[in-house]
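seq/struct pair 1
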Amino acid sequence: MDRIGKIMTPGAAASIYSPSPARIPVQMDLFETTLIQGESNTIPRSSLHNPIADEEYVMPSPAKLFDALRGGNPRGNTTVDNLYDSVALPAGAGSPRKWTILFYLDGNNSLEPAQVKSLLDLEKVGSTKDINVVAQLFRAPQSLIEDEWKKAGFTYTPENIDGDWNGARLYYVTRSPDSRTIRSRVLADFGTLNAADPSHLSQFLTWGIKNFPAQHYMVILANHGGGFMGALHDDQHKEVMKPPELKKALEDVRRDTGADIDILGFDACLMAQAEVAHQMKDQAKIMLASEDQEGYTYVHWPLSETLEELAGRSGNMGPYELATRFVEGSKSRPLLTPSLSAFDLSKFDGLPRALDGFSKALLETDTDPSVIRENIGATQGFVLQGDRTPPFTDFRDLFDFASHIKNDPRVSDSQLKSRADILIRQIKNCIIAEQHIGYGLDNAHGLSIYMPTDRESLESKKFKYDQTLLAKDTLWNEALKKFAS
């Protein structure tokens, strides 16, 4: 079966089709979508062209972004005055409810249309007597978005949703049938803010948890993602929030509120990764994320559908069931959410130990290195392998790799096979639910890991993989170096 790619632009969806397979690189804003033409009933896959790692990113002055990735701190002093001290709360805000769901919708970049539409989608249900829905929406100026699309060779037509204002606004989300105008109450208009600044995230979450108490809390972070390289881009400030910064922000929230986050969701590409989950394992009970790339300009997750179901049950869902409902609901939108996983972070401590044992066995094995490299190459990936977009090309499914090692007759090392089996069972133990309905994801099992076979990527000063917490806590990086060419 061949693949077909669809170009989605605000307000329209055009498809490209040809009976003979051909590869067409299409530069679209932050992503380079590779269209494999063929049967019209297949599902597109894309090659990520992401400012987290690409120094040829089309926006001007990318150096500040990559200073952050190399260890610099272009945002300087991140301490800011508390923006929420004077926010006027809606009536009944302090009354405990069953769920408070906090959305951090980062539209300070090319995904601005998706974030605005996500808020409108939430308004189809809104808050209820059992559920608080609170959102902070960041919007880039339309001129910036238009400029990005123009440089990518596409025409961007602003849709004039809610007047196309820009800046950051805080909302208590209420029900509205209006699909063009945000009708929820604006609790604050902050003007231009840096969405990648962890102090802004921690302030928002702390304020939301303190003022909208509930039995359970869910946090959804929506924007671009790049696994261990970070998420929550702000293209106006040329910054991205790295996992250690996100971890610190969430630690601050727990310190200041004493509350546990039940579900931490990444509505972003490529975040269902062992490196990310290891960093987040003490910051929430459950993590929701996608191994693969998500859609572009439209609502990715089944937000209103899942919220409607939760409201219909008067908020009577536990965290595990609600996370599962998001996963199950995402099966109906393979173009937008081709994969989604829910991890039990309370069980995640066992996974790094299993990975470390597997890595040690790899270091000690006398198996032909070319056999290990071949198995890595055969492992499920999440960016088209014909298009080198490191490090994303080397994000591969950990379960699938361990299965290859376990089942390969050329691998006679019983200890290595045993350690692979232990790792497989530990991954199964951590995953509450997962789906991989997107085209070309047959061997996805819910959790990826960085798995390059070239030494240049492993030793890249830009990626700094050896500084990730998982690389420090396990022998995985050392094992990769043994087989790198």
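seq/struct pair 2
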Amino acid sequence: MEGRSELAANNLKSDRVAVLGGGYGGLALAGELTLLGVNVRLFEFSQFADSIAPIKKLGGVEVTGQGIKKSGFAKIELITHNIRDAIKDVDLIFIVAPAFAHEAFMKNLIPNLRAGQIVTVCTSYWASFIYGKAIKKMGATLAEQAVFVYASRRVGPTEVFIDGEKKMLTVATYPMKRLDSVHTLLKQIFPQIKKASNPFETALNNGNPILHSPTIILNIGHIEQKEKDFSFYKAGISTGVGRVIDSVDAERMQIVKILGVKNVYSQVEMQKLMYGDYGTCGETVYDVIKTNGAYDRIVWDYSFVMRYIEEDVPFGLVPLSSLGKSLGVRTPAIDSIIELSCQITGKNYWSIGTTIERLGMAGMSADELCKMLIDLSSA
């Protein structure tokens, strides 16, 4: 990553980017980009002022980690609760937030956009289908990555630790005709990023719901003890849990097959492509998790782990189940994880989640969905 700073800055019309979201991911991205020579404006909602206050007081964030070339204190140019100030004179905007917060960010961001700006949602969750048209109306472009670039944690009030950087990233845009220019820009910051053929590809390559949701549900007894040192991946994914994840993933891949989406990878393939430099190998989910060195030190507490139910079940698994029903694909493993999540939390994720109705796919046959895929590829 050394040497990226001048290249990144020189390929931006403005030498600034905005990072929206002051959680662990947003702080990791803001800190790393700052250390690489990019001027960053960091935005967080005022209701989370207490969380961001130590960062604001210090004027930046301490970045540490493994597999990164730049570490140290990153002095962030602007840390603000005013979204207009954050995106003013900025060409590239990153949204780094849980899927359940995307709507709040978009509601505040979209009316303030100007023509030519690029809004990059760092983990898809079907963003193009939900927000693409509204952003296009403002003359801006929505870009969505399949997954966020870092596995990272906040390890202190002013410190983030990057456990690993994914070696495979993909991006799609809405409209797709702007993909080449967006990809050229993002590649200056993330050299490993590749162009996706359409937003179906990025949405279906988001492996977080497949990996996180079963692991939480099948470890809920341990998680509810609220211990602060739960090794989510290494202890949470046993051989049995791994088999369930394999089953959930097989249903996702069957949906992919019916739709005919290219370049969508199984969870095993995905782990190898993203974390191959960390020793990841094997033929099952259990294998690739146990050999993935990027996950060795990741420990989470109760509140953090339970956040993944609120994100990955309604915004990740529910759309897969809904799409499966539309395509005639049975999804018993996915459905069981959704239903157990409802029972554990007392929430009806079936009704509040992202269904094909919200994605603009209601009533479409498999042939019509495939046509939609072709139309998005050429839009």
